[in-house]
Amino acid sequence: MRHYKIALLSFLCLGTTIALGQAVKEDFKPSTKNQPGKEYPQVNSQGYARFKIEAPAADSVRVSLGLGGRGGTKLEKGEDGFWTGTTEGPMDEGFHYYHINVDGGTFNDPGAKNYYGSVRWESGIEIPAHDQDFYALKDVPHGKVEQILFPSPSSNTSRRAFVYTPPGYAQNQNKNYPVLYLQHGWGEDETAWSNQGHANLIMDNLIAEGTIEPFIIVMTYGMTNEIKFGGLRNFDITPFQTVMVDELIPYVDKNFRTVAEASHRAMAGLSMGGMETKMITLNKPDVFSYYGLLSGGTYAPEDVDKVDVKLIFLSCGSKERPEAIKAATEKLKEAGFPVASYISEGTAHEFQTWRRSLKEMAPKLFTK
Amino acid sequence: MRHYKIALLSFLCLGTTIALGQAVKEDFKPSTKNQPGKEYPQVNSQGYARFKIEAPAADSVRVSLGLGGRGGTKLEKGEDGFWTGTTEGPMDEGFHYYHINVDGGTFNDPGAKNYYGSVRWESGIEIPAHDQDFYALKDVPHGKVEQILFPSPSSNTSRRAFVYTPPGYAQNQNKNYPVLYLQHGWGEDETAWSNQGHANLIMDNLIAEGTIEPFIIVMTYGMTNEIKFGGLRNFDITPFQTVMVDELIPYVDKNFRTVAEASHRAMAGLSMGGMETKMITLNKPDVFSYYGLLSGGTYAPEDVDKVDVKLIFLSCGSKERPEAIKAATEKLKEAGFPVASYISEGTAHEFQTWRRSLKEMAPKLFTK
C-alpha cells in the first residue's frame, strides 16, 4: 500500500524533528533493532517510522513515539486485523525507546527487540544516523563483553557487571590497562551501554583505526535507590558508592589486568549516571582522575578546587541545554581546569547523544 | 481478594500437572523471572500461576499457559481495568515460556522478563522447583560469561557466542581447560543456556562443591536455517557445521586457554541442538570425544561404530519419551559403548529438564 502524507502539523518534541510539507518516501525497511525475521516496525530514509500490530478485536492501538506527550502515533485498523500507522514527522537519528497501548494497556511491539529503560523492558527502534559507521559491526578485531558476578557484602548478594576487554587482551599477558567505569541513566541497567549504546563496537572501531589506546570499560547497575519513582530528589549516593568503590573496583583490579591507580581510572555516566559520577568523584577524589558527565550536569570550578583531576568531559545533545554545558566549560577553562566538551548536533536526551559522547570522550581519556 | 478454587478439570499437558480436588493456597509471590519491582505474574507454593494485566478497554485477555492447546488461561476483567486469572492446575516445576493474547493479538506480559524462544522474545515465568538450589545464585566464586564476536567468513559477518570461563580462569595463567560446546533448541538462541538455563550458576555451584573439574562452555547461535518455520525436515547441517568446526572452534582455541584436542572437547545440545550435535559429531569424528543429546534423540550402536567416543550422554524429561532414552542406552551398553543416561522426574520438554541434564552430565565429561 503506497502511502503519501503531508506533515502539516509538526511540533518540536523529544525524538521528533520539524518537517513541513515533506512527502513521505516509500522506502521503508525493517528497523535494525527488530527481532530476527520481523518485518515491522520499519523506518524510511527520512526518519519516519511505520508500525504494524496485530490485534483484530482491539478498539484502539497507539504507539508512544511520534508526538511525545501528545499521545504518540494512533494506528488504524485494516480489514486483515492489523493496525498500521506512520509517525507524523521524521524522528531524530539514533535509538528510541517506545511501547504500544492496546485498549488502555501498555505492551511492547511484538516485532521489536526489548531494551531496559524507564524501569521496564521497552521496545526499541533505530533511525539510521548519517554517522552510524562509528558504531557499526565491522570486520575488525573485536573485544569481549564479559558478564561478571562480583560479591557485594554491603547489599548481601552477588551483583552483575559487564566488562569490555579490548581486542588483544587475552594475548598480551604482560600488558595492564586503564579502566573507565561507565554508568547508565535512570530506569536503565548495566545492559544499556552495550545493547543500546554499542559501547563495545565504538571501542573496537576506535581501536582498529588507531584513534585510541585500548582500555577496559566496566558497567554495573547504578539504581541503588531501586524502583522508587520520583526519588531522585532524595537520592542517597552512599549505597552505590560503597558498591562501586569498596566492592567493584577491588574485584576488577584483582580479576583483570588493570593499572590499579587513580591516574588510570575514569568514571563517566549519562543522565542520572552523570549525577552519580559527580557525587562519587568528588566524595572519593583519590579514586578517579578522569570525569565524564554525558547529559548529566556540570562541575563548577569550586567543586573541583581541591581535586587532582586530569580531565573533565561534559556533553549533551543540541536539543537539550547545550548553553549550560558551554557556560560551565568556559568557567572551568577560565579557572585553569582541564576540560573538554561536546554537543551532539540534532539529538536530544537519547542514546545517539551518548554514543557520540563516548566516541568523543574516549580519545581524551588516559592521555596525561 | 481471597480466591479459593477447586480444580475439577485437569488435563495432562505440557507444563501442567494433574491435581484433582486441590484447594489453591493463597501464598502467591512474584515470580523470580519478573522485571524489577513488578508484582505480577505470581506463583504459589503448589505451582499455580496467577496473572494480572492492565487493559481497561479490551474485550478479551488470555494467557498461553495453563492448559496448553486448549487456549491457556482466560483472565477476567475487574472494575479497576485489570484482568486477572489463575491457572486451572499447578504447573510443572521450573521455567516456562508464555505470552498473552489481547483482543486477538500476541503480546508479552509487561510484568515478566523476556526470553528468546519460539523464534521470538517471549515472557518467562519460574515455578520454584524442589531442587532449585543447584542453580541458585550463591556466595561462591563465580565464573564469567563472556560475549565474543568471532569472524565468520562463511556467513560473511561477525557472529556472537557466549563463553563461560570458570572461577580462577584469570588467575591460573598456566592452566588450560577442556571445552563443552553447548547448543540451544529450535527457536532459541545463544542467550538461552545462560538466561533460561543458568548454565553459569550450575557450573559455579558444581565447581564450588568440588563435584567437577572446571571446564569452559561455549554457546552460539545454531539456527542456521534461520527463520524458516517447519523446516526441520529439510535441515541442512552444513552451514552451521562450518561455523562451528571451521570458524568458532579455531577462534576459541586461539583466544582462550583450551586443551585444543578432541579428547578434551565435548558437544551437547537440547532438542534441535541435540540433532545438530548428533549430525556434527558423526560427520566430524575427529573433533569431539564427548557427546550429549538432551531431549534431542539418541545414537544407535551402528551410528558410532567407527567413532572414538569417550562418552555418550542421553537424557529427557519423564513426561517426554523416557522409554526411548532407556532403550537406546541399553542397546549402546550391550554393544560395549560408554553411555550414561538421565531421566528428569516430573518435567517435560522444557528447561528444568535441561538444567538438570547439564548438572548430571557435567561430572561425567572429560574424566577419561
TrEMBL record, chains A, B:
<dbReference type="InterPro" id="IPR013783">
    <property type="entry name" value="Ig-like_fold"/>
</dbReference>
<feature type="signal peptide">
    <location>
        <begin position="1"/>
        <end position="21"/>
    </location>
</feature>
<dbReference type="Pfam" id="PF00756">
    <property type="entry name" value="Esterase"/>
</dbReference>
<dbReference type="InterPro" id="IPR000801">
    <property type="entry name" value="Esterase-like"/>
</dbReference>
<keyword id="KW-0732">Signal</keyword>
<protein>
    <submittedName>
        <fullName>Enterochelin esterase-like enzyme</fullName>
    </submittedName>
</protein>
<dbReference type="GO" id="GO:0016747">
    <property type="term" value="F:acyltransferase activity, transferring groups other than amino-acyl groups"/>
</dbReference>
<dbReference type="InterPro" id="IPR050583">
    <property type="entry name" value="Mycobacterial_A85_antigen"/>
</dbReference>
<dbReference type="InterPro" id="IPR029058">
    <property type="entry name" value="AB_hydrolase_fold"/>
</dbReference>
<dbReference type="InterPro" id="IPR014756">
    <property type="entry name" value="Ig_E-set"/>
</dbReference>
